[in-house]
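User: Hey, my collaborator sent me this sequence without any context and asked if I could get a structure. I don't really work with proteins. Can you help?
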Amino acid sequence: MNFAASAGKPSDGSGTPLKAVQIDGQVVMKIVKHCSEHSPSLVTGQLLGLDIGATLEVTDCFPFPSAPVGPAADEEVDPDAGADYQLEMMRCLREINADNNTVGWYQSTYLGSYYTEELIETFLAYQENIKRCVCIVYDPSRSAKQGVFSLKALRLTDKFYDIHKKGEFTFEKIADKSLSWSEIVTETPVTITNSALAAAVFGELTVETQRDEQTGLTKGDLDRLDMSAAPFLERSLEFLSECMDDLASEQQKVAFYQRNLARHTLQQTQWLQKRKTENASRKAAGQEPLPEDDESNTKNVTEPSRLEGFLIANQVNQYVEQIQEFGQASLQKLYLVSGAQGVDNIAPATPE
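Assistant: No problem. I've predicted the 3D structure and written it out in structure-token form, which is a compact way to encode the shape of the chain:
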């Protein structure tokens, strides 16, 4: 049972392009709480809201049931239980007059590892009925260790969706459409809004925080000066190395396919030339020519999927951007601390 098909409303996808995703502050807090409590396990949930003009408003959300662990993991799980739970939640929200229009889903990730085939398959399932759906990706590991609020809104590009929907995701069609690996998923700007009552509460909390800061440094100030960079960089470089190995494997598959295709084409050309020569001799002898279609050579070489390679390239780019961003912040903190301590050079001393 496809929940997106049962909960979503058909849309022609025409009109103003989606330019921004507006999320209610309470929804952000729900997403952060759900993802952080289950970290490093990956969780997901439903996004509810309104699709208005160029802005997609996310006004509510609810989590999906997590997979059972321990002894309960061995029990047989009803494949429709998740969809039934989601439909029941939608019915309950409708009864209390809350927004119950599905606009996408959210999911957690670990160090930005979200470019997977499951992400693309979920997008395709949702976009059958919800043309402008989004996926909110939150990384609790980066938020906890770096102080970076890693929240992104992702969408499939129209070019990739049209090619994949028509079943034309082949080498030839990709070249004709000039589809690049960076044109599969696009990031949409996110804005967070709060009600007037929430803004008043935040104002009071800000005044109390400013009063506390007058007495000295707060814990948040000390956290920003954390100089530990090895754990994050080590894990990011490990993931990047694994992705590079996977990318090299995909390139080998493509090279193997191209060699087989060239060999197969050469064999077909040689066979056809030989058959034409034989038919010319038969015509000269007054015999019927043989057919020039060889059934044994009609089987084409299987073309490997380019989607996996494109996703790996996106993931490599994500890791590189994370490492670059974190490296710049770490160097800035090192220069700041070295200047406060009167150190002119932050490079480690080399043994003589």
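In plain terms: The CA atoms of residues 16 and 136 lie 21 Å apart. You can pass these tokens on to your collaborator as they are.
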